[in-house]
Amino acid sequence: AGGLRAGLGARLGDPVPPAEFQRAVAALAGGPGHVVISGGFFSRLIARLLAMHLDQLIPHVDYAGEPLGADIGKYLRLGRGSVVVMFDLRRHELAAGQAMSMAKEAGATVILITDESLSPSAEEADIVLPVAVDGIPFDSFAALLTLAECLADAVFRAVGEPAIERMADWERSARIPRAASALPLTERPGT
Question: Within 13 Å, how many C-alpha atoms sit on residue 75's CB side?
């Protein structure tokens, strides 16, 4: 299994078509009215991370952990100019396809992040970003995490100064208890 995982590391970006990646970046950085990001049973972890990163760069980003349940309202708000990023990996989930169909009917652009065997919903997506996930006994999320980080980085670079301003607003406004802030001023790193 270690050899298989090492082989995956060497192929992290291989399956992702560069033109599709650039289209995904353009859709996300082009001032979408609303971005909704969802994932499957395990991929929701990476979907949530991508949503948190993009929310710091562009406005109107939502994570929908239950697209056909408690988060249905996020999908009902979709329309032209909206973007959905759906993670649907092997052992593809029915909810992913149903949420993508709802998004397409509303006029949203759909970016599908899937495995190399492709989700059954790939034909319905506007942009398809396949990644290598082969693993035993569990799929590897190394390429998935790398893709999410590369998307966030590319959106940051494409948005430019407004992304920096939003990040600064985020840092000033977010109340995240930091270990250094609990130390007396004289003992804080950098003082």
Answer: 25
